[in-house]
C-alpha cells in the first residue's frame, strides 16, 4: 500500500477544480472525554460527540453503501509526514495529543482521495482504497468471513497433490522459487528440496536462503546422532510417535527443517500426519471432544540442567479474529502433570485425549517416507505432526527451527497471507 504524502488541498478547493466535492460538515465541538479524580484514578465519561459521533460518509464506487468513518479514527490515521514516518513505517503521533475536541472543518472527495481540513488547521489526504481495506468491514470482518483455503491431506491424498520436489540448484539460483516454497508450506504444510549435498555447509546455506534460523535452547543449527547435548527423546534412536515440537514454549517454533546427512543402518522410516486433517476428523467423529480440546489448557514442560520451560494452552488453538484453527499443540511426551482440571473430570479428559491420539496414530493418516541424504524437508510445526520408527546404526540429522513470526513475515511479504 502506498503511503500518502501530505498535500495541500486548499487551492484546489477554492478554485473549484475538484469533482464530486461534497458540502463541508458543520464544525462539531467535542467535549472532554476523560477526567482525573482522586489524583491517579483515570475515569472515562461517555461523551455523545465521542461515543455517538457524527460519522463521515465516504462515497464508494459501485455501491450505494457509504464508508462511515469516525473523525478521531481519521485523524489518528493521517499519513502526512508530521503524523506518520513512511521510512520507518511507524506513527509519529502521540495518542494523548489527539485532541478530544478535534473536528472536521471541511472535506472533499476526488477520484480515489479523501481530503480533510481539520478544526485545528491540520490537513490530511487519504487513499480511499486504503481506508476501505483498513477499517472494520474491510479488514477485521473480512478476516472473519474468509473461507479456508488450505489443502489438508491423509496418507493417500498426499500422493495426489502432485508436488514435485524443488531442486537444490533451482533454490540457490532462482529467487522466484522462494515464493513457491512459502506457498507450499502454507498450503500443504511441507516442502521438499532435493539434491542438496549432504554437508553441514550446504545444509546451512539452504536453510539461510529461505529464512533466518531461530536460536533456541537447542542452538541455531542443531545436529542429532553425533551427540546427546540435550536430554530430549529426539536425540535417541527409539520410536518417536507423531507429535509437534515445543509445546512448552510460549510460542512454539513455527517450522522445522530436517536434513538427514548420513545414514548407515536399518529402520528409521519417517512419517507426517496433517494435524488439521485430524482436527476435521475429530470434529466430525466427536464434536464435544474437539470443543473440549480447544478449550482446556494443558501444561507442557521441558527440563534440562539450568532450564525449565513451561507453557499452557489447549491442543487446538484458534485465531483470535477468524476463529479458524491456527495451531495444534500435540505432544503426549512433554505433558506436565495434569493439574488443569478437577479430579472428577479426569475420566472425560483421558477419553477425549485418547480419541485424538487414536486418530493421530491411524495408519491411513500417515504420510510415510525415508529421510535420505540429499533431501531437506521443511515442516509446519503448527500444523503437521512428525514421527519416526526406531533405528539401528549411524544416523546424523541436521536442522533448525524457523520462528513462526519470522516465517509468516516472509510469507506476508510474498503476498501469500494477509
Ligand atoms: Zn497529519
Automatic annotation (TrEMBL):
Residues 169-401 form the TauD/TfdA-like domain. GO terms for biological process: carnitine biosynthetic process. Converts trimethyllysine (TML) into hydroxytrimethyllysine (HTML). GO terms for cellular component: mitochondrion. It comes from the Eukaryota. Pfam families: GBBH-like_N (PF06155), TauD (PF02668). Coiled coil: none annotated. Residues 67-131 form the Gamma-butyrobetaine hydroxylase-like N-terminal domain. Its cofactor is Fe(2+); L-ascorbate. Keywords: Carnitine biosynthesis, Dioxygenase, Iron, Metal-binding, Oxidoreductase. This is Trimethyllysine dioxygenase, mitochondrial.
Amino acid at each position: 500500500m502506498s503511503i500518502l504524502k501530505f498535500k495541500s488541498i486548499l487551492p484546489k478547493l477554492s478554485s473549484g477544480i475538484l469533482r464530486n466535492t461534497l458540502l463541508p460538515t458543520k464544525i462539531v465541538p467535542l467535549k472532554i472525554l476523560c477526567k482525573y479524580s482522586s489524583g491517579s484514578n483515570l475515569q472515562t465519561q461517555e461523551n455523545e460527540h465521542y461515543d455517538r459521533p457524527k460519522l463521515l460518509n465516504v462515497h464508494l464506487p459501485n455501491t450505494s453503501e457509504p464508508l462511515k468513518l469516525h473523525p478521531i479514527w481519521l485523524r489518528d490515521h493521517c499519513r502526512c509526514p508530521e503524523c506518520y514516518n513512511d521510512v520507518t513505517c511507524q506513527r509519529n503521533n502521540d495518542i494523548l495529543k489527539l485532541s478530544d475536541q478535534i473536528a472536521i472543518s471541511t472535506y472533499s472527495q476526488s477520484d480515489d482521495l479523501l481530503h480533510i481540513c481539520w478544526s485545528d488547521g491540520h490537513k490530511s489526504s487519504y487513499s480511499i482504497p486504503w481506508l476501505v481495506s483498513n477499517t472494520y468491514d474491510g479488514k477485521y470482518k473480512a478476516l472473519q468471513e474468509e473461507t479456508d483455503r488450505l489443502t489438508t491431506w491423509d496418507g493417500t491424498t498426499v500422493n495426489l497433490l502432485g508436488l514435485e520436489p524443488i531442486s537444490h540448484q533451482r533454490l540457490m539460483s532462482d529467487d522466484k522459487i522462494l515464493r513457491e516454497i512459502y506457498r507450499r508450506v502454507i498450503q500443504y504444510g511441507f516442502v521438499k528440496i532435493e539434491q542438496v549435498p549432504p554437508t553441514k555447509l550446504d545444509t546451512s546455506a539452504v536453510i539461510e536462503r529461505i529464512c533466518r534460523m531461530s536460536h533456541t535452547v537447542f542452538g541455531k543449527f542443531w545436529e542429532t546422532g553425533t551427540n546427546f547435548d540435550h536430554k530430549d527423546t529426539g536425540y535417541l534412536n527409539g520410536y518417536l510417535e507423531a507429535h509437534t515440537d515445543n509445546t512448552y514454549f510460549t510460542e512454539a517454533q513455527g517450522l522445522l527443517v530436517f536434513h538427514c546427512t548420513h545414514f548407515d543402518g536399518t529402520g528409521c522410516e519417517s512419517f507426517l500426519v496433517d494435524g488439521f486433517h485430524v482436527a476435521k476428523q475429530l470434529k466430525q467423529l466427536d464434536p464435544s471432544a474437539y470443543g473440549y480440546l480447544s478449550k482446556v489448557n494443558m501444561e507442557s514442560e521441558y527440563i534440562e540442567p539450568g532450564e525449565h520451560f513451561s507453557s499452557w494452552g489447549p491442543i487446538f488453538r484458534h485465531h483470535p479474529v477468524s476463529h479458524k484453527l491456527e495451531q495444534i499443540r500435540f505432544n503426549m511426551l512433554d505433558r506436565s502433570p495434569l493439574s488443569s482440571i478437577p479430579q472428577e473430570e479426569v475420566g472425560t479428559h483421558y477419553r477425549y485425549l485418547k480419541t485424538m491420539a487414536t486418530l493421530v496414530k491411524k495408519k491411513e493418516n500417515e504420510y510415510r517416507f525415508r529421510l535420505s541424504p540429499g533431501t531437506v524437508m521443511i515442516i509446519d510445526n503448527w500444523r503437521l505432526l512428525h514421527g519416526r520408527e526406531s533405528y539401528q546404526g549411524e544416523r546424523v540429522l541436521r536442522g533448525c527451527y524457523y520462528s513462526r513470526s519470522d516465517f509468516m513475515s516472509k510469507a506476508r511479504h510474498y503476498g501469500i497471507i494477509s
